[in-house]
Amino acid sequence: MAPSGNEKERDDSGERGNNSIDDDGEKGDRGEDTDVLATRSLRIQSKRYYVDVKQNQRGRFMKLVEGLPNGSKNRISFPMSTVPDVRDKLTAFAKFWEDMESNGSDKDVEASEDGRLKTDDIRSGQRRIYFDLKENKRGVFLRISSTASYGAARQTVALPAQGIIDIRNVLNEMIDEYGQSEDQLDELPEFQEMRVERKRFYFDCGNNDRGSFLRISEVTNRYRSSITIPQQGLSKFKDILSEVCTKLDN
User: Each residue of 11-52: pLDDT tens digit?
Assistant: First the structure.
């Protein structure tokens, strides 16, 4: 069996306290209108999993919720632009586990000291998503964890190895119906960041049904704030910045 919610080690069962994360995977900006576009649920061993596609002013995103037997929940969210990469990683891990099972789990694969059989990650903008296939006394499972943005709480869910392909199939359905086209993704500028004194600033472009936008985030050790500028206002925004810079330099 895969690890249950009563697993003693947090590292092996998903971190607790994720219920405070907002629907877009970040703290703050509460009160933001969020529409549910689609939802799927499936049972894998003793757990219930929910896959939701939602949309707010920042764009579309997918949320994966792990319902534990004790009633608590772990959750993790991804922008829709990242979901195809997550789908591909799930495919690779499912194949790895199937090969491991067919060859005998102890024959060709040796776990590391912390029980890891295979690891991988995705870097997308401010976000880094980690995939760890692990084994403990309860069985083999895939742990997916992510810090949605710098300064945000870590999100973690755990999937029993037998259910990886089921979640992958649901992601495929969601991508087909709600994913962004390659043309939309290629039009967006690359994520950029800069550091000034003890602050970091992140420049992240996105798009939704209202059009494209630029989100500028200011992050320190104590707080995080952000502003979103619609594409049609960027030219004026640039002019004002240029004027301010010119006056400050004089």
Answer: 343 333 333 334 343 433 444 578 899 999 999 998 999 999
Domain annotation covers residue 2: no
| pTM exceeds 0.90, yes or no | no
Q: Which residue has the tokens 């703050």?
A: 28
Backbone angles phi, psi at 234, to 5 degrees: -70, -40
User: Which residue, of 123, 147, 178, is where some domain finishes?
Assistant: 178
For the stretch 170-206, pLDDT in tens is 999 999 888 865 544 456 677 788 999 888 888 888 7
Domain span holding position 149: 10-178
Do 50 and 119 have their domain in common? Answer: yes
> What CATH number has the domain bearing residue 165?
3.30.2450.30
**What domain count does the chain have?**
2
> Which residue shows structure tokens 């810079």?
245
| CA 6 to each of CA 9, 45, 163, 167, 170: distance values in angstroms, whole numbers, following the listed order | 9, 14, 19, 22, 26
Question: Judging by beta carbons within 10 Å of its beta carbon (0-12, 13-18, 19+), is residue 45 exposed, middle or buried?
Answer: middle
Q: In angstroms, rounded to a whole number, what is the distance separating the alpha carbons of residues 165 and 228?
A: 36
How far is CA 173 from each of CA 36, 52, 76, 87, 109, rounded to the nearest angstrom? 16, 12, 18, 11, 32
Given 148, 178, 208, the domain boundary residue is 178
Question: CA–CA separation, 59 vs 87, rounded Å?
Answer: 19
